[in-house]
Amino acid sequence: MIRTSFNDGWQVRSKVNPFAELSGQVVPFRPVTLPHDAMIEQRRAAPDDGVTMEGAAGAYFPGGVFEYRKTFSVPEEYRGRRIFIEFEGVYRDATVYINGDHAGQRPYGYSHFRVDADRFLRFGEDNEIRVEARAHRDSRWYTGAGIYRDTWLLVGEVVRIAPDGVRVRTLDVDGSRAVVEVATHVANDSIEVRTVDVVTEIWDGSGAVVASDISKLTLLPGEPATARQRLYAHSPALWSPESPTLYECHVALRDVDEEKVTFGIRSLRLDPERGLRLNGETVKLRGACVHHDNGILGAATYPRAEERRVELLKEAGFNAIRSSHHPMSKAMLDACDRLGMLVVDEAFDVWTSGKSEFDYSLSFPEWWERDIEAMVAKDFNHPSVIMYSIGNEIPETGSPFGAVWGRRLAEKVRSLDPTRYVTNAVNGMLAVMSELGALRKQALEQAGDGAGINTLMADAGDAMNAVSSSELVTERTAESFAVLDVAGMNYAEARYALDRDLFPNRIILGTETFPTRIDGNWQLVGQYGHVIGDFTWTGWDYLGEVGIGRPQYFAPDEPQRAHNAPYPYLVAGCGDIDITGHRRPASYYREIVFGLRAEPYIAVRRPERQGKTWAGSPWAWSDTVSSWTWPGFEGEPITVEVYSDADEVELIAEGGSFGRRPVGAEHRFRTEFEIVYLPGELVAVAYRGGVETGRTSLRSATGPVRLTAEADRQVLGATGGDLAYVVLTLTDAQGICHTGADRPVSIEVSGAGELIGFGSADPSTEERFDTTERRTYEGRALAVLRPTAAGKINLTATARECDPVDVVVTAEQHPQAPTPSRSPDPIPPTS
After folding, report:
1. Measured between alpha carbons, how far is 611 from 634 in angstroms, rounded to an integer?
2. What InterPro entries does this protein map onto (predicted)?
């Protein structure tokens, strides 16, 4: 089918009652270009101000119902063809109308779906499509709202390759050849018997045809059929995170239709001794959980935004992403294929038991099969996808009926795709929530005076592990784990060693773990063959679930620590990377634990909180910044943390050496020095066996503050969802970030582009992302530009007491795809 973008020409408004409009209350539409997040543009407010809010889960944004419409023409020559409109994601409860008639719907906000449009169209005339989407207290995180992913117009003949109809898998591979199966699903909506030639070619990255085949396929009237071909590629280049080699499969129904898909050749193996093997080599998953929002862009899913996240996560040392807790976007899957990132794609956060007032559990019993089918159809050709997760922290997993549901989902996935593994991210404590009272009573009796259990329950991580490793959880979750290929465990590392003996055939994946425990968790991953990886919560910070990772301190008037932070908190605060893409100290610590960084790393605790007693959650990293610029605290005590895998580290400042401290694995890869702050240079030197192995330093910013602006790329595509990211930084003359000089920055954009997001990583702010002025946070802000045409895009930024700065990027049309060079044994012509 011919696939063209359907993103332009839309309008949006908040939906109003049509009867109210008759009385004069008219809400105008305004133009938008998709993808679009209608929620990010709403005004946040405290929950008690009279506005219906999503609360802390939704970052205090209001929910609502949003209406999109578009007028488009359909030429007369399209009459008699099949026409579909495809939506990659509409959040949520999407309802589609064409020329006023109901054309389709989709309750789940993360599934791609198509509307069969041709029956509703007026050919040779203008047509109107209208899409309604609603989001209201239906999730535990910021979801966004509206048509937040790409849309497409698909046009084809009555005999055609069905959408998502080409599925490629590697049946067998060794060093000399790969056996590749191509299954092509062909539709026949005609009333005739049709026989077509199915011509299939596999191209390598240079455009050379490395394998080909042709076969005939006869289609009965109104019946689809599948052509299944085996092709043999010699000396295949295997896909892996280190070498993400891709091939293209081109399938043509000669003189009728054609389709191409990208795929990779690789093998997967799994056993409890050698764990997960990719192409015969054991791989441990250095995993990041990620939500679907793109920070200052909200939920809008631009291909470049997804690609940038994958790039930065990989640079930070991750080799795997768990899409939490939703099916991953097509754009991010494409980026994972190209860049070499393994994927655990997750279907649902709820099944039949709801977690929010109006969540997907209300639709799950009727729609789950179609949503599983959509996820697998989307993922099938992506070599990055190694595993499907059928759920996250599903309360039903602790009951027999929940195990029945788990078996249904797992078997459905296997029936659609037997090439990948199935997991489920089980939280043992939630699985036995109804029994926690009895479990606590039992623990109190065992602890005597109760001091032991009270101390235990004061820490969420210890509490979850204690419950998850109990006999109760062992018994209640046994069947739910048994239906899986991989037992996904959230916050349950206490089971890793336990289950090696209790369930010797069980393979475990830490599907969600505390970032503060990566050192111990990673030691367990390396120690046990049946534990194949660790996924931290989270690799990238996200909107909503506000403040779970924020710094907290004990205070006399706050004896209880709140799980969420009050308005105007905006983000969760637990990501290794903040919402602008800047790496936080936890990210560098993790890189050291993974064994990927030799140099030590310096993180400095905020001196204004010196002496306070830490009370952060297990999701909260220490309240540190990698900066030696603290104006106003000269001569005051300050704590310096140093991370390293060496034997010891030495800290050197303007006053000389502060001695050496042991560090490395036995000391959790970290140590700290309490010194007096004096501006200048701070140096950490790492030693192993008395020999220096690396050093790093921080310098204080001095002198006048300058504003700098740097784009991530100078040239970008004018179409296809490309973006330019411009980092604005306050520095001194030497380019050192001035973290203590935050101020408002204003920007102006002209030329062939527009500003679509401007913000900082400030975790608690009332500033918006759709304005042209934002205050920096820790010396930084980020602007995102979208091309509107080919040409130059100009950005000018100004700030108080700083010279203006300019950035120019160029948007160009994408180059043409390569032309294939024919194989020595070409496909024979039609006889």
Report:
1. 16
2. Beta-gal/glucu_dom_sf, Beta-mannosidase-like_N2, DUF4982, Galactose-bd-like_sf, GH, GH2_Domain-Containing, Glyco_hydro2_dom5, Glyco_hydro_2
Phi, psi (deg, nearest 5) at residue 142? -70, 125
Please count the other Cβ atoms lying within 10 Å of the Cβ belonging to residue 295: 24
DSSP type of residue 781: E
Same domain, 739 and 804: yes
Is the preceding peptide bond at 136 cis, omega within 30 degrees of 0?
A: no
Beta sheet of 194-203, edge-to-edge order = 209-219, 194-203, 247-253, 257-263
Q: Are residues 686 and 710 in the same domain?
A: no
227: amino acid identity, one letter: A
Query: What per-residue confidence (pLDDT) applies to 47?
Result: 85
pTM value?
Answer: 0.95
- Three-class SS of residue 71? strand
Query: Does 40 lie in the same domain as 114?
Result: yes
Per-residue pLDDT of 610-651, as tens digits, reads: 999 999 999 999 999 999 999 999 999 999 999 999 999 999
| CATH code: domain of residue 210 | 2.60.40.10
What mean pLDDT comes out for the span 666-680? 97
| Domain match, 150 and 56 both | yes
CB 673, CB 640: distance < 8 Å: yes
Q: Write 729-732 long-range contacts (CB < 8 A, 24+).
A: 729/776, 729/779, 729/780, 730/705, 730/706, 730/776, 730/779, 730/780, 730/799, 730/802, 731/701, 731/705, 731/706, 731/707, 731/779, 732/701, 732/702, 732/703, 732/704, 732/705, 732/706
**Residues paired with residue 577 on neighbouring β-strands, in sequence order:** 540, 583
Q: Is residue 593 part of a domain?
A: no
Regarding beta strands 101-106 and 64-73, do their DSSP bridges make them parallel or antiparallel, or are they unpaired?
unpaired
Spatial distance between the Cα atoms of 169 and 163, rounded to a whole number of angstroms: 17
**Domain termination residue (choose one: 664, 699, 734):** 699
Residue 552 lies in a domain: no
Q: Examine residue 176 and state whether it is found in any structural domain, yes or no.
A: yes
User: Phi and psi for 383 in degrees, rounded to 5?
Assistant: -65, -20
Same domain, 175 and 214: yes
Strands of 753-759's sheet in order across: 706-711, 724-731, 780-787, 753-759
Cis amide linkage into residue 400, ω under 30° from 0: no
409 and 518 housed in the same domain:
yes
Question: In CATH, what number is assigned to the domain containing residue 89?
Answer: 2.60.120.260
CA atoms of 781 and 742, how far apart (whole Å) = 10
Query: Residue 773, exposed/middle/buried by CB under 10 A (0-12, 13-18, 19+)?
Result: middle
Residue after which a domain boundary falls, among 102, 130, 156: 156
Domain of 406, CATH number, reads 3.20.20.80
State the residue range of the domain holding 262: 159-266
How far, in Å, CA of 463 to CA of 477, rounded? 18
CA dist 767 and 579 (Å) reads 15
User: Tokens 């007026």 identify what position?
Assistant: 122
In a domain, 271, yes or no: no
Q: Return the DSSP state at 236.
A: P
The answer to whether 349 touches 355, Cβ cutoff 8 Å, is yes
DSSP states of 451-520: HHHHHHHTSHHHHHHHHHTSHHHHHHHHHHHHT-SEEEEES-TTHHHHHHHH-TT--EEEEEE-GGGHHH
pLDDT exceeds cutoff 50 at 823: no
Torsion 41-44-50-55 (CA) sign = positive
**Do 530 and 632 fall within a single domain?**
no
- Cα–Cα dist 56/60, whole Å: 6
DSSP state for residue 118 in the 8-state scheme: G
Is the dihedral angle over the CA atoms 699, 701, 706, 710 positive or is it negative?
positive
Separation CA 310–CA 319 (nearest Å): 10
What is d(CA 403, CA 408) in angstroms, rounded to the nearest whole number? 9
Q: What is the pLDDT of residues 185-215, one digit of tens each?
A: 999 999 999 999 999 999 999 999 999 999 9
**73 and 8 share one domain:** yes
Region label for 21, one of left (φ > 0), alpha (ψ between -120 and 50) or beta (otherwise): alpha
pLDDT score for 398: 97
